[in-house]
From TrEMBL:
Residues 1-159 form the Obg domain. GTP binds at residues 166-173, 191-195, 212-215, 282-285, 313-315. It comes from the Bacteria. One of its GO terms (cellular component) is cytoplasm. Residues 160-332 form the OBG-type G domain. Its cofactor is Mg(2+). One of its GO terms (biological process) is ribosome biogenesis. This is GTPase Obg. Mg(2+) binds at residues 173, 193. It comes from Buchnera aphidicola. An essential GTPase which binds GTP, GDP and possibly (p)ppGpp with moderate affinity, with high nucleotide exchange rates and a fairly low GTP hydrolysis rate. Plays a role in control of the cell cycle, stress response, ribosome biogenesis and in those bacteria that undergo differentiation, in morphogenesis control. The lineage of its organism: Bacteria, Pseudomonadati, Pseudomonadota, Gammaproteobacteria, Enterobacterales. Keywords: Cytoplasm, GTP-binding, Hydrolase, Magnesium, Metal-binding, Nucleotide-binding.
């Protein structure tokens, strides 16, 4: 199924049913009193999070969601039937935004979370309601109130404990694939990951969710490449793993690659840039121990290396178990 993380929809709640003007007319009771019933309330529109969904693709094809109108009242004091509610199911992690004002209405971060997004119109009153000692034959009723109309912007931000970022082909997908149950594609060419993928990692009966997004390239914040449009899926992560290729296939400089990713991250979002971030140096099996020390020395010279760092081989599964255990310990704190 294609991954869609944005949709714009219109929701319309049901109109309230009108009140009725009616008088009791039966044999031997030629001049009975008023018996006009009330209308029914209009149906509501709800939005509910569904753990079985992971994309907003269904909302790309259906744009308008309308609840049912309340029925009008009738004689013999019969009230109109309430309009039927409708519920729109969305993935967990969906933000509901007022399209006109860009105000965040709700953020559905838990399963089975339900919010009333458009309330049905109030019912009208029948003429029975207006009977009094002064006016025994009221010819007055009220009309039902129209339902609400709202334009909504829905944005899906995946919920993960850990997120990966880095240049294309740095080994993010290989790492996620080898430590989790994620079925992510891996190959020796850039942009094998075309959409965010979630994986579940279990170690010592403890679990965390990891997100794999497409690689980030130079000028990504200006629209180049794929990764920048998916960076929002890292906003909920508690920690970021910055994967650095020590032996890039294009012979680029790992130090410059780190700088490129950090610059693009900072341009995109200050909050994301300031998240806890660990440097993960990949493809340790392809370089010598002496070269590892040289790289760390250069990095410390170039950056203020406050982050934790690890040397791993995602494909050979070197160092990844300890990395997972340390992540679990960090998340526990």
């Amino acid at each position: 199924m294609k991954f869609i993380d944005q949709a714009i929809i219109q929701v319309i709640s049901g109109n309230g049913g009108h009140g009725c003007i009616s008088f009791r007319r039966e044999k031997y009771i030629p001049k009975g009193g008023p018996d006009g019933g009330d209308g029914g309330d209009g149906g509501n529109v709800w939005i509910k999070s569904d753990k079985n969904l992971n994309t907003l693709i269904d909302l790309r094809f259906k744009k308008i969601f309308k609840a049912f109108n309340g029925e009008n009242g009738s004689g013999k004091n019969c009230s109109g039937k309430k309009g039927k509610d409708i519920t729109i199911n969305v993935p967990i992690g969906t933000k509901i935004i007022n399209y006109q004002t860009q105000e965040i209405i709700a953020d559905l971060t838990e399963k089975e979370q339900k919010i009333l997004i458009a309330k049905g119109g109030w019912h009208g009153l029948g003429n029975t309601r207006f009977k009094s000692a002064i006016n025994r034959t009221p010819r007055k009723r009220t009309m039902g109130i129209p339902g609400e109309k709202r334009y909504l912007q829905l944005e899906l931000c995946l919920i993960a404990d850990v997120g990966t970022l880095g240049m294309p082909n740095s080994g993010k997908s290989s790492l996620v694939k080898n430590i989790s149950n994620a079925k992510t594609k891996t190959a020796d060419y850039p942009f094998t990951t075309l959409q965010p993928i979630l994986g579940s990692v279990v170690r010592n009966n403890k679990k965390f969710i990891i997100a794999d997004i497409p690689g980030i390239i130079y000028r990504a914040s200006s629209g180049s490449g794929l990764g920048i449009q998916f960076l929002k899926h890292l906003e909920r992560c508690k920690i970021l793993l910055h994967i650095v290729d020590l032996f890039p296939i294009n012979y680029s400089n790992p130090i410059e690659n780190i700088e490129t990713v950090l610059q693009e991250l900072k341009k995109h979002s200050k909050n994301l840039y300031e998240k806890p971030r660990w440097l993960i140096f990949n493809k340790i099996d392809l370089i010598k121990s002496l070269d590892q020390k040289k790289i760390i020395k250069e990095i410390k010279k170039k950056f203020e290396l406050k982050e934790k760092y690890y040397f791993i081989s995602a494909t050979k599964k070197i160092g990844i178990n300890q990395l997972c255990l340390d992540i679990i310990s960090y998340l526990k704190k």
